[in-house]
Write a structure and sequence with these properties.
With about 700 residues, this protein is an alpha+beta fold. It has 17 helices and 28 strands. β15 and β16 form a beta hairpin.
Amino acid sequence: MSKNLVIVESPVKAKALQNYLGKEYSVMASYGHVRDLTTKKWGDKNSNNGYDINLDESKVNLTWAVETKSKKNINEISKFIKDKKPKSIFLASDPDREGEAISWHLADELKLLDKKNVNRVVFHEITKNAILESFNSPKKIDMDLVDGYKARRVMDRIVGFETSAPLSSAIRVGGRATGRVQGPSLLIVNNREDEIQAHQALEFWNIKVDLVNNKDELINVQLKGNKSNKNHFLYDPKKDKVIPIPDEESANILEDKLSKSEFNISSIKKNKFKSKPRAPFTTSTLQQSASSELRMAPRITMSIAQELFRGIETGSTVLNLITYMRTDSTFISNEILTSIGEYATKNYGDDYYSGKRVYSKASKNSQEAHEAIRPTDIKNSPEKIKNQLSDQQYKLYKLIWDRTLASQMTDSVSEKTVISVETKENDFLLESEYIESVFEGFKILDQKTNNDIVPKLSLDEKLILEKVHKLKNFTRPKSRFTEASLIKELESSGIGRPSTYASIMDRIQYHKAVIILRRSLYRTNVGKAMINALLPIFGDHFISLEFTSEMERNLDEIAQGKLSWEKVVCEFYENFQSKLEKLKKIGENNFSGENQEKVVDPSSAHHFTDIHCPICSGKIDLCDEEEFDQTEGLREKKHNCESVHMKWIPIKKKSPKDDGAFLACEKNYNEKGRTDHKSYLPEKCWASIGRTRKNNLEYFNESILAKK
């Protein structure tokens, strides 16, 4: 009898399964997504972008082609099936919508859809027990999930391909495109930037006072208000609103009064409170934490997580470290919870484990039936396997391992001490807060517990005035989004899915609609121009947050078998086409030189940021190397951009890794820069590409802000 055939996506995963399944199974890798929609061929009127939509009949015909990187593997698999005639064929791609689609692509391309010996197996961790259990209960391909994938893929293709040319023409910047989910993501960043730009800083003051007790201990207290009107000083009857110290004059009056006051302790309140550990990681929270704690981009996070899931090769074996990394579930199985509890008790003591914790799903539109992202074996501590991992693999695995273990440990206990100080003369109230750790609990894993030292004070104790500090402040606008906070915002809005967040971050940066500086997302003029062009036309369609969220729900219902994927696509396409014509007209008018319907001034639709050159105050541009005309040793921009004229100046390369050039403001251009290393050039120059440019841009921005 012939061997059974198992098909997975990657060679490493294939090796792991081969070790567990034994000689009765042959495991082969298909490599990647296998197929994608075809692309329209230049000059071929009969070709399309992989879809043919008949609105009259509500029918959608999709045309697929095997991806180049998968062709060799698919041919080898096809030959194996033909020659060996395996008893059973198992499709073992990843356990989500994309994985289901890969299994369907494989079955369709290999002409296996109607074969009775073809089965689908799903496992959420690559361990022997999980794999054997899945092979004991195989199933058929879930065509509802596949239909959900088809709908998502074709709508993404429609928006991405059909808006590209007219959008580029409308904003007069070539090679720009948007997407069904990228558009709303950019809109969120754009709206936040508009809020920041519109913000008017209002002045307010705080007062802090240094006091000394009879033991010469320094106590720092902050003025809170009067006892009769705690936290505020002034009242506006017209607005029926209390406001803080508004100006320096008011602060001076208060300073003078405090300087002449006597201070004594009016109360010492102590309250214990608990802090609960956070739930195990979902895809979204993993990307957020990796971004904020490890400064790891979502794309890198998912790539490394995939390596940890599929396995790390260690000689003849494969070390599979985590469960599947695309999930919106915080659930952990009882079996694993038991092993985590045993590990916590053994290594930290009974006080650090109080029983199993069960976390409910908190994600909006939660859909996946997976476990949370967790270690396959809690006994594989990060330090134990550190030598077998790269630096990034170790850091991400430690993040996952710590979060999983902490989620099952006891609460931490802290004590908050609030010391209240009063003045007899004018009834002022001042306060100071201290936080002490009583019991570390799960925070023992953090090793960064801050512990305030509470001064030893008694009620009615008199304190001596050391100094009064007046602190000038200004109201601040909302912070710019980071990749982490944008992912959180997308998740809460029901936009995108765990598998798409990383690609969304990449695409909005790829098209220069958004750039990252100091970990914050800045909208460029390109991004602003794109929104200005798209929002008036598609404001109630794919660019709309509400529409996109509703469409995600429709896609979920398709995957549940509740909606027809073709009907949803046809309705989307019909509405989209009518609006697309308006965008095309704007693009055509711009291209022909007619200005009546221009949505943006072409000269402003470039890669400008809101960061200014410290020399000429012009906005800094982030042009690519290819946007420069090369001359003899000098590259000059094709056009002036505001007051900044950039020059591409070659330098001596110290190593092949050097980018070999930098950009400098025209007003500080140094001819010696043609041959000298950049360290000999004026400091007000910035690198052309890569990390150096980014760091220097940040430096310049901070410099100009400091001058203001």
